[in-house]
Amino acid sequence: MSAPPATLAVRRRLGRLVADAAAVAERLAFWAGVALPCLHLPLLAVYGVTPDTTPVLLALWALHAAALLAGRRHSPEERHDQRDRRARRNGAADDRRDRPERSTDP
Question: pLDDT grade, residue 73 (50/70/90)?
Answer without folding.
Answer: confident
